[in-house]
Structure formats: structure tokens, C-alpha cells
Amino acid sequence: MSASILNRESWLQEAVGILEPIFSAVGYGIPPLKVSCGFAASSSPRTTLGQCWPRERSGDLVNEIFISPKIDDPVEVLDTLVHEICHAIDDCQSGHGVDFQGIAKSLG
Ligand SMILES: [Zn+2]
């Protein structure tokens, strides 16, 4: 993918808008969030495809999602984005626990 980081970020933000009704349909509203393309400081760039930060860590009190610029496949990007939005919905409270799985499962 040769798109610039900036284009990719507006693409990601647009994707959130497209996913919104899908999440709403199963009863989960997407909280206000910022999606960025990049690595979070504490993550390993080799293994981390995405990361979601809890609201209290953000100055704007929104969830911040980072998507690794290493992912080239748009399907994989969306996959990762959906995964991280699931974290944003419970504000990263349950990790990959029961709540998380409940949200992920109802999305199919
Ligand atoms: Zn996760």
C-alpha cells in the first residue's frame, strides 16, 4: 500500500464510521475514539498489530487505537480495527476475557 500515513488515518477513521452501525445493530455503541497509524511506545512492533489505550490515558478522554503501519492487507487492517474497537467498548477493562469475547462473538 503506497498511501501516506495521513491518508491511511482518514481511511481508518472512515472505517470506524462504516463499522458503527454494525456494532450498534448488536447493541454496542462505539465510544468516541481516535485511530492512529503507528506503534504505541510499549509495544513490540514485530508482534503487535494494534493496540487500544484506555480513556484515562488520553488527554481528550477518548479511547486511542493504534494500528500498525506494517499491516498491508486492508482485510487484516479491518480485522485488527474491529478487535481494538471491542477493547474500546469496555475501555480495555476485561482484556481478552469474557466480556471481550461476548462482544466479539455477537459480531460474529
Ligand atoms: Zn486485544
DSSP strand tally:
3
Shape: globular
Poorly predicted regions are none
Counted up, domains total: 1
Molecules bound to protein: zinc ion
What profile does the largest beta sheet have? Answer: 3 strands, mixed
Main CATH class: Alpha Beta
Strand % is 5-15%
Sketch the topology as an H/E string, one letter per element: HEEEHH
Name given to the CATH homologous superfamily:
Metalloproteases ("zincins"), catalytic domain
As a percent range, the share of helical residues equals: 40-55%
Number of helices: 3
Q: Helix/strand/pairing class, anyone?
A: alpha+beta
Structure notes:
By secondary structure, this protein is α+β, with helices and mostly antiparallel strands. It has a single domain (5-107), classed as Zincin-like (2-Layer Sandwich). It has three helices and three strands; from the N terminus they run H-E-E-E-H-H. The model has no long low-confidence stretch (mean pLDDT 88). The site of zinc ion (ZN) has 3 residues, from helix 2.
Notable traits:
three-stranded mixed β-sheet, 44% helix, 108 residues, 3 strands, Zincin-like, alpha+beta, binds zinc ion
Which secondary structure elements does this structure contain, and how are they paired or packed?
Blueprint lengths: L4 H21 L7 E5 L12 E4 L9 E5 L6 H16 L8 H10 L1
Parallel strand pairs: 1-3
Antiparallel strand pairs: 2-3
What is this entry, summarized?
This protein has 108 residues and is of the alpha+beta class. It is built from three helices and three strands.
